[in-house]
Write the structure tokens for this entry.
Amino acid sequence: MATGIQHGTWQVRDRSRLMQLEGDRLASVSSRHSDDQTRWTEMTLYKTDKGSYVLEKVGRSVVTHVPGCSEILGNIPRFQDAHPGDDPDVGYAYHLCVPAEYDFTALLVEEDRYWAVISTEPGEIVEALYRKQGEARFMPRISITLIEEASIHDELLASSWNYTRII
């Protein structure tokens, strides 16, 4: 789902860093199609009052694990610490590692991941939306939706998106 332009003061995260900007939210999209999805991506594209573009990407997750799960990458927090007062039975998903009988206080939860790209050049924002798979470069559907929606509101972005020089 895409949303249109809105002016305001916005907070954007880049990993653990929090940034504030004044400007237009050109577009916002999410790959989440149902409440059953346990992982999804959200992206928002802003243009500051001074003319810089800010692309925020968020990897969302509602997946819980037990300590020692082989699929956990790095350190993830205890569910109780990350979501005090929440119940993992409401709105969260259990990974296959969680047995039918488990210790609620030991559950771990995946954290949302935040990235931001900041540039005065709209072409750099378009480039940041591409992904690589082996030697091939492609743009996921969610990125196309974001850039097409944002291009309606920003002529420079539209010209960077609508015209690509292939070398």
Observations:
- The two ends are 33 Å apart (CA to CA).
